[in-house]
Amino acid sequence: MNKYTLTFRCEKLEQKYQDSRYLYTLSTCKSLNVISFLLCLFRSITFIIQNHLVGFFVFLVLTIIVILAQFFIFTNKRRWVDYYLLIINHFMMLQQQYVEEGFEKQEAFVFGQNQMLLHIMIILVSEFKFGSIQILGNIIIKIVLSKYYQPSLPYQSIIYSIVFGLMFLYSMFKINQQYRLSFLFTTQDSQQEQLIPLLTDSPFVLCTYNKDNLQFQQKFSNLLLHQEFKQFQTTHDALNFVLRNYSVFGQSLETFLLARQKKQDELIVNKILEVKSNNNNNDLSKLFIRYSECYITELIYILIIDKKRLEIQKLNQKLVYYEQGLNKFLIQFRNFLKQQILILDKSLNNNQNSIYQAIIKLIYIFSKFKNKKSCKITNQSFLQCFKKYAKLYSQAYDKKRIKIEFCQEIKEIYTIENSLEEFMINFFNYLFKIKTDIIQIYLCTSFVQQNEYIDIIIKVDVMSELYILLQKSTHFRRILKTISPHDYVILNDDSLIVRLYKNMNEINQLSSFLIKPEQLKKTT
C-alpha cells in the first residue's frame, strides 16, 4: 500500500477494494441524488411562481443534470461517481457567494452547520484522493470568497481555516488508512479459509462456543469434503456428530470442550486425543484428534482428525498379527520337518513307498511358498514333466497302476511360467486320492475353432467321484483357469478331459485383433 495515496500496489487488490467501497458510495450517492432532485424541483417551481425566469432555468438545468447523472453513472460508469461527488461538493462550496442578507444570525448558523454536514458526508464516501481535493478546494474557495466579499476579514480566521482544514485532511488520511487495513485483513482472512483446506488432506474444523445460542459454531472446515461426513447436509451437523458421538476421558467430546472454557490460561497445542465412538456399530469406532486451542478475541478450538495415525495403528496391529502368525507357522513347520525326517529315517528300514510319499508331501508344501506370480509365457517340456510326476506318484502308491499313452506331437507346451508344475502337483494329488486301482491316461492334441489344445483324457472306475473332487477344488480350478480355456473338467460318458492351451503365445496374439471399448468410442 502506498503510504501517501493509500492505493494498493496490486491492481487486482485495489480493484476489489474499489468494488467493496462502491457498495456504500453508490447508495449514498443515490440518496443524495434523490434529495437534490426534490430540492431543485421545489426551487424551480418556487421561481416559476415568483416569475423569476433566470432562477427557474438555472434550477431546471440542475434538475436535468441530476437525472442524467443518476442514469449514466448507475447504469454504465459507476467509477465516475467520485468525479460526480467532487463536482457537487465544489458546487455547494460556491453557494457561499449567495449568502442572503436577510438571514438571521441563528438561521445563518444552522444553514452553515447543514452545509458542513453535507460536505463531510460527501467527503467520507469519496475515495481519499478525491476527498483530499475537496478538503483543499474547500479551504481555498472559502478563503478567496470571504476575502473578496469582506476585505476586512481577519488573518486569524484565514489561519484557523487552513489549520483546521489540514487537521481534517490528516483525520481523513487515518480513517481511510484504517478502512484499507480492515479490508486487507478481511481479504487475507477469507483467503486463509480457502487456503487452509488445501494444505491438509485430513478432516478438520475450527470452531468457537456461542454463549448466546449455547452451541459450538464452526469458523471454517473441510469435513464435508471427506467421504466419512458426506451423509451430513451441513458442516454444523457434522461437527455436532463428532462432538456428541465420541467420548474422551469418560465424557463426551462436547463436554470436554465446554470444561476447557474455564481454563483459558492453559493453552493446549498439538495434543493427541484418542476418542471412542459411543455407537459400536459405527465404522469409525475410534479416532485420533490433534487438538489445539488459542485465545485471540475468543477461545478458538482446532480439531484435526488424524486419519493417517489411525491407519498406521491398524497397520501396526496387522503387522503384530502377521508376526504372531508367522511365528506359529515357523514352529509348526519346524515340527513338520522333524516328523518328515523321522518318517524318512524309519522308511529306510521299512519300505520305499513312505519315502516317496514324504517327498510328495514336501513338494506340495514347498509349492505353497511360491509367492511370485509370473505372467511370463515360456517354452516347457510338457511330456517330460508329466512323466516325472506320474512316476513319482506311482512309486509312492504302488498299489495303483497308471497307464499312459500319448501321441508323438506332444512334446512341448508354451504356457505361463511356474503354472505347469503347480498344475501337475495338484492334478496328480487329486488323481491318486480316489479309490481305484487302475488309472488310464491318454495325452493327445485337439483343435477347437482353429485353436490347438492338449487334452488329458482320464479313465477310471469311479468317474463321478473324480469329477466331483476336481470340481469342488477352487484352488485347482483357479490354476486351471490361467492355462486352460475352461475352469472346469469336461465330463464325457466314459472319460474326463482336462484341456490345456498348447501355445498361449497364439492366444495373446489374437487379443491384438480385438477392439477395446475405449477404442470403439474413439472410432464412433
From TrEMBL:
Transmembrane segments: 55-74, 118-141, 153-173
Keyword vocabulary terms for this entry: Membrane, Transmembrane, Transmembrane helix
Name the UniProt record assigns to this protein: Transmembrane protein
Source organism per UniProt: Paramecium pentaurelia
